[in-house]
Amino acid sequence: MAVFFVLSLGIYFLWFNTDPKEQMVQLKTKDILPATNKAILTTASNQKIILSEEGHSDLGQQGNAVVAKDKDGSLHYQALKGRSANGVVYNTVTTPRGGVYHLTLADGTQVDLNAGSSITYPTTFSGSERKVSVTGELYFEVAHHKNMPFKVVSANQTIEVLGTHFNVNTYVDEPATKTTLLEGSVKLTNHLHQTLYLKPGQQAQNGTNLSLVPGANAEAAIAWNNGFFHFENADIATIMRAFSRWYNVDVVFKGKSNGKHFTGDVHRNLTLSSALQVLSYLKIRFSIEANRIVVIQ
Fold first, then answer.
1. Cα(202)–Cα(205) distance, integer angstroms
2. CB atoms within 10 A of CB 197
3. How many other C-beta atoms are found inside a 10 Å radius of the C-beta of residue 140?
4. What pTM did the predictor assign?
5. CATH 2.60.120.1440 in the chain, residues?
6. Low-confidence ranges of the chain (pLDDT < 50)
7. CA 120 to CA 41: how far, in whole Å?
8. What is the topology classification, in CATH, of domain 2-32+227-296?
9. Are 3 and 265 within 8 A, CB to CB?
10. Which residue intervals of the chain bear CATH 3.55.50.30?
11. d(CA 273, CA 45)
12. What is the pLDDT of residues 201-244, one digit of tens each?
């Protein structure tokens, strides 16, 4: 119910707050659209291929896998049968700010990348483990392989699983790395060699130490992958970091914070001005100028 209240409140200000002196969002340039499916594929030879929504295409062979872009715009790796490993070939998919992307690895693992994220991975997996490196925020549905654990390495931790669904948020401008388990089990090891095992519904944060987040909302952690921003008692700086990545804008703050916090969901398919209008009840003014948000507190 809180979700609809917050969204309805935003729509109220959008439609009924017509006094220019009371407008909370000032649009000084054309409105900014939400993120779209786009990314860059970097091959082992450092070739860069722009990935978008424009239909099916075959991207050729990378190592012992054939790479194709499906009709929905996502990337798919298919291991070549009967081929022995001939050296490890790595690819990287990077989403810019204002872009999201989906890919299927050669083992069948599904990966969704939020805006401003990356994943580096072998085009096919061999040996005793499957290992990828990530930045930003990603959601994994890992294909189960009993004798080949799947490891996700970021700047300050390693996640180890066999087959499971989880989200990892490792943006460098966030206070801590957060790992949220939806299904299965994971083992976390941080840069201090601290270890933690997660059960479904649990969330870990890794900042100065590795610890469980009490009362974490696992579904809220993947709201971004279901078309929403979800905020729980978030200050304006936290909200603007998320908007900055999604809408590919810079943020400038003017004035002293009023200390207000926001709880609720905001649709990620809104234009920037409409998304900001949802926050109107915070009594913070926003100005959209070229590719930046000016926050007037």
1. 10
2. 12
3. 24
4. 0.89
5. 37-220
6. 1-21
7. 10
8. Phage tail protein beta-alpha-beta fold (3.55.50)
9. yes
10. 2-32+227-296
11. 41
12. 999 999 989 999 999 999 999 999 999 999 999 999 999 999 99
